[in-house]
Structures are given as structure tokens and as C-alpha cells.
Write a structure and sequence with these properties.
The protein is mostly helical and 323 residues long. The chain contains 13 helices and no strands. The protein has a domain of 195 residues: MetI-like (MetI-like fold, Orthogonal Bundle).
């Protein structure tokens, strides 16, 4: 391992800035080209006159041309100001900060469990083979083929309604708790959505790690390591893990966007007031500032994940810098 040149880090940062600008430009145009708008609902309200709608558009700057609106929005975004929500009247950054912790908490816990299970059982099934491998292969295929919304509704029906073991919605009970009791209450409420994310997410990753491990085990250095009398635990620790690490780092980098955008459906089903719910409600209401704010945050996470994964890979293996 060696230090990464600052010039390379600078180029990566310029890449993030350029791509983020391009994504924001395309997203801004696509959103404003969509039919209807937030103020179209004023036609259904007899008290909302055309003059009142025109006044609201002037207040929010929607009476200007699209290029001017985009330049104003970019100027505000450079100051970390995503504007004001049409629906609530609150700053978009405040709306996002109020919801982002819930979504990140659920998805980070789920992602860690997914990687731990897929990593462990993928390697173990490739090494042991036989019925053990076949059993986890079938379980992984079932995980890959199960729709998340179907499993969520099934768990709600069986474990929530019939057995009453878990709550059906929300992340906290009606009676507020403090300290460790509050942590247990939140864990109890998010048990079902976390279970759905973990079960539907670990299958494909486990099959991928199993396939990579099988290829590694066919290598010459594994043959010579076994010929020297090394046990399987030592082989896995010193040969399998290091060769799997680049692939794991890449997958982790690509998984960062899912921390925000991967739970829109589940948050609707379990009535969790997170980023997914906010994006869904804003899309229905054509709340442009909130939609743009969430999409920019998601795009930034995607680009950041890719760049961080590239830099970590270069730090692990300096020979990749030749490319």
C-alpha cells in the first residue's frame, strides 16, 4: 500500500463536480417538462383565483424562464440552499435533515447484515460444497426471486396481524420512551422492514461471492497452499479474503445510493416517515425543490461511492494506477 497522489484525488473531485452539474441539468429539465405542476391543483379549488396562482408562481420564481430558474437554483445550491418546499413552506434542507436519519439508520443496519450474511455463507458454501452449498444456493435464489413488497405484506399479515408479535407501522410507539427503552422500541418497530431488506438483498450478493470464491479456490496458489498442509481457515484468511477485498470494496461503493433511494416502497408499506416517503409525496405533488434536493443528494452519494471505491482500490493495489 502507498499514498495516493493528490493530483489523482483532485481529478476525482473535478469528476464529481462535472457529473453532478450534468445530472442536475438533466434532472431539472426532465422535472419541469413533466405534465401538470404543483399549482395545477388550484384549478380544483374555487377559492384559488388565477391571480392568486400567478402571485404564488412569482413568489417561488416559477414565472421566470427555465434557464433563469436553473441559474437561480444553482446559485442557491452552491450555498447549500435547496429552496423552500411548495407543500410545507419549510426549507428543503430542513425537510431532508428531518427524514434522512430514519432512512439511513434502517438501510445502514440492513446493509451491514446483508454483507455479513452474504460474505460468510458465500465463502462457506463455496468451500464446503455438497448439500450445504446446494441448500444455500436455493435459499439465495429464493431471496433473489422474492419481491420486497410481497414479503413485506406477508410479514405484516402473519407476524403483525395474526400473531401480533411486531407493530404494523411507524418506528416508535405512541407512548414516548427514553434511553435504552427507546432504542429497544425502535428496534422492535424496524424489525420487519430490516428483515425484508436483508432477505431480499443477500441472495444475489451471496451467489456473487460464492462464484468469486470458487474461482479463487481454483487458483494455483491455493493448490500449493494446500500442498504445504495449510488448513482451510488459514487459506481463507490469507488467500481468499485479500483476493475478495477489491470486489467487496466496489460493491460497497455501488451500494451507497441505496442508502437513500432503496426504501421508497417499504417506507410506504410500513408507514415510515423517511426519505422514501418524502420523495414519493413530493413526486405526487410536483414539489420541485424537494424532488431536486433529494435527487441531487442521491446523485452525490452515487458519485461519491464510485470515487471512494476507486481510491480505496488504488490504495490497496497501486498497480491499478497504470490504467
Amino acid at each position: 500500500m502507498s499514498r495516493i497522489p493528490l493530483s489523482l484525488i483532485g481529478r476525482k473531485l473535478l469528476y464529481i463536480v462535472g457529473m453532478l452539474w450534468l445530472i442536475s441539468l438533466i434532472t431539472f429539465g426532465a422535472i419541469h417538462m413533466a405534465p401538470n405542476s404543483f399549482f395545477a391543483a388550484g384549478g380544483l379549488n374555487p377559492n384559488m383565483t388565477p391571480e392568486a396562482i400567478a402571485h404564488l408562481k412569482a413568489v417561488y420564481g416559477l414565472d421566470k424562464s427555465l434557464p433563469r430558474q436553473y441559474l437561480d437554483w444553482m446559485h442557491s445550491m452552491l450555498h447549500l440552499d435547496f429552496g423552500v418546499s411548495f407543500a410545507s413552506g419549510n426549507p428543503v434542507s430542513q425537510e431532508i435533515m428531518a427524514r434522512i436519519g430514519i432512512t439511513l439508520g434502517i438501510n445502514i443496519v440492513s446493509m451491514l447484515l446483508v454483507f455479513l450474511l452474504a460474505f460468510h455463507f458465500g465463502i462457506r458454501s463455496a468451500i464446503r460444497g455438497g448439500k450445504y452449498e446446494e441448500g444455500f444456493k436455493q435459499l439465495a435464489l429464493l431471496s433473489y426471486a422474492t419481491p420486497s413488497f410481497y414479503l413485506a405484506l406477508l410479514l405484516i399479515l402473519v407476524l403483525g396481524l395474526k400473531l401480533g408479535w411486531f407493530p404494523l407501522a411507524g418506528i416508535e410507539g405512541l407512548e414516548p420512551k427514553t434511553g435504552f427503552a427507546r432504542i429497544l422500541d425502535i428496534a422492535w418497530h424496524i424489525a420487519l422492514p430490516v428483515t425484508v431488506i436483508v432477505f431480499t438483498g443477500f441472495g444475489s450478493l451471496m451467489l456473487y461471492i460464492r462464484s468469486l470464491t470458487r474461482e479463487i479456490l481454483k487458483s494455483d496458489y491455493i493448490f500449493f497452499a494446500r500442498a504445504r498442509g495449510l488448513d482451510e481457515r488459514t487459506i481463507v484468511r490469507h488467500y481468499v479474503y485479500p483476493n475478495l477485498m477489491p470486489f467487496i470494496v466496489t460493491i460497497l461503493g455501488l451500494s451507497l445510493p441505496g442508502l437513500l433511494g432503496g426504501s421508497v416502497i417499504l417506507e410506504q408499506i410500513f408507514s415510515i416517515d423517511g426519505m422514501g416517503m418524502l420523495f414519493y409525496q413530493s413526486a405526487l405533488a410536483r414539489d420541485y425543490p424537494v424532488i431536486m434536493g433529494i435527487l441531487v443528494v442521491g446523485a452525490f452519494l452515487t458519485l461519491l461511492g464510485n470515487v471512494v471505491a476507486d481510491l480505496v482500490l488504488l490504495w490497496i493495489d497501486p498497480h491499478r494506477r497504470r490504467g
